[in-house]
Specification:
With 139 residues, this protein is mainly beta. Helices cover 10% and strands 29% of the residues. Bound molecules: zinc ion. The site of zinc ion has 8 residues, from loops.
Length: 139
C-alpha cells in the first residue's frame, strides 16, 4: 500500500447486542462481538485463495485483499497487510496470559483476530483473522 495518509474513519456502525444477534450467525456473533476464536483449520477461508476482497461480516467494510493473503499454516486466514490502514483498529490484548495485538474492524468495532510480527512480507506482519469475521467479495 502506498496510500499512507490517515483518512478519517467513516461513520461508525453501532448496533445493540440484540440487533447484532439477529443479523449475524451464532459463529459470527461469537467472534465479532464476543471475541471468540474459531477452531484452527475449520474456517471457511483458511485455505481459500480465490481472488477478491474480504469484507467485514458485521458491517461490510473492505478489510483485506486476497492479494495480501498467504498460507501461514497456522489454521486461520493470514494476511500481510490490511486493505487500508484505516480499515482496522488495533488494541493491546493481555488476555490468556499473552500480550497480543487485537485487530478490530474500525467501523463496527467487531473483533477480527490478532496481528503478529512474524509475517513473511516486507513489514513482517501476520494478520491472523477468523474466517467467521470475514466475507469474501469475489472479483
Ligand atoms: Zn465491521
Amino acid at each position: 500500500m502506498t496510500d499512507t495518509k490517515q483518512t478519517a474513519p467513516q461513520s461508525k456502525v453501532e448496533k445493540s447486542e440484540k440487533e447484532w444477534r439477529a443479523e449475524l450467525t451464532p459463529m459470527q456473533y461469537a467472534v465479532l462481538r464476543e471475541k471468540a476464536t474459531e477452531r484452527p483449520f475449520t474456517g471457511e477461508y483458511d485455505h481459500s485463495f480465490d481472488p477478491g476482497t474480504y469484507v467485514c461480516a458485521g458491517c461490510g467494510q473492505p478489510l483485506f485483499s486476497s492479494d495480501d493473503k498467504f498460507d501461514s499454516g497456522c489454521g486461520w486466514p493470514a494476511f500481510s497487510a490490511p486493505a487500508s490502514q484505516s480499515a482496522v483498529a488495533e488494541e493491546r490484548d493481555g488476555s490468556h496470559g499473552m500480550i497480543r495485538t487485537e485487530v478490530l474492524c474500525s467501523k463496527c468495532q467487531g473483533h477480527l483476530g490478532h496481528v503478529f510480527d512474524d509475517g513473511p512480507g516486507p513489514d513482517g506482519l501476520r494478520y491472523c483473522i477468523n474466517s467467521a469475521a470475514l466475507k469474501l467479495d469475489p472479483k
